[in-house]
Amino acid sequence: MHSCVSPRRALLVLLPLVVGCRNGPAPEPAPQGGVPAPAAAAPASREVITVRNAARLERVASLDVPGSFIGLVTFLPDGRSLVTGDRNGEVLFWETGTWTRRVYQAARSTREADDSARVPFSPTLALSPDGRTLAGTTNAAGDVAVRDVAGRAVSAFSYGSPVYATAISPDARLVAAGGLRGNVAVHELATGRQVADLRCDREYVSVLAFSPDGRTLVAGYERPGNLMKAWSTGTWQESYTFYRIDTRTDYHDAVFTADGGQLLIARIPADIELVDLGTREVVRRFVGHDRAAYQLALSPDGSLLASAADDGTVRLWEMATGNAVRVIELGERELYSVAFSPDGRLLAFSVSGEGAQVWAVAR
């Protein structure tokens, strides 16, 4: 798939760096017909995934969702559940270990129907860092609904056109949405009240990410040309413009390092780049994917970068050197999304048309 908007950004968006639990354990979603997943392929060890043991990673579970287009995999902060979200609107909660699934949101269609009808939008979904709230678009008009993990309505607002990216601030106070109109609309998560309308001369927004301290919002803009802007969340004034590219490219993902000083960017072409936000210069490249990565994730200790790509591989990279320490190959399948568990012991990623897989260090 070579879309102008990445599956992760056009479908389901998450800020990967803020997966620590800040407000206590999140409640489990209400069961809606729990369905057991296939048995785990192998028992998971209790080792944290590191540069040294990455070669020993093995698949421990296959979460079967035939015909799926899963653009989000992420763990709740307490680590007890893995969340998957599909382009057709289906959101599932999988109990870690048993891999029993619960339906949080039922599918509104099938992948075949969406492809055949050329559905003009893909739903987005953002999970708050505390794991308690989900905000997602519901239609091509850009209507956004905010609900808690039990499915209860919290707030709602409309962006006014197709949404390609959403992000929730680290303190779970704000939700940002951007898309076809080329502006970024920022709303209060609890009330839906708009607090900022950030404008640019580009056609649409494809990437949004809050810094770990919540003081900066980064937005990636496309058409014509490409650039990224940083906005102050205190004043909503533009802080600086960077990563300006005159030729066409597609921004797929942007992930802050834990200190907020650097930004990892996945885009077309395939190299992943680490940008120093002080100098706005590329300081490291992660080279190896044949086609572009769709989604990035940092391990909880920040030592490993995981990337899921269009070339059918998940790669683990040592952040300190940029060297690949493990390549997981899945043939011709596209891999849309990737996440580490909060304790760093599990790696989950989605596989086009199949569902998701969970890997851990072999015993």
Written overview of the protein:
The chain has two helices and 28 strands. With about 375 residues, the chain is mainly β. The chain has one domain (about 5-360): Methylamine Dehydrogenase, Chain H (7 Propeller). The strands form seven sheets. Strands 1-28-27-26 form a four-stranded antiparallel beta sheet, with no helix packed on it. A four-stranded antiparallel beta sheet has the order 2-3-4-5. A hairpin with a 5-residue loop joins strand 18 and strand 19. The longest helix is centred in the N-terminal third of the chain and has 7 residues, at about 110-115. The protein is globular and about 50 Å long. The chain starts with 6 loop residues before the first helix and ends with a strand. Mean pLDDT is about 85; it is low at about 1-40.
Offer a concise description of the structure:
With 363 residues, the chain is mostly beta strands. 3% of the residues lie in helices and 45% in strands.
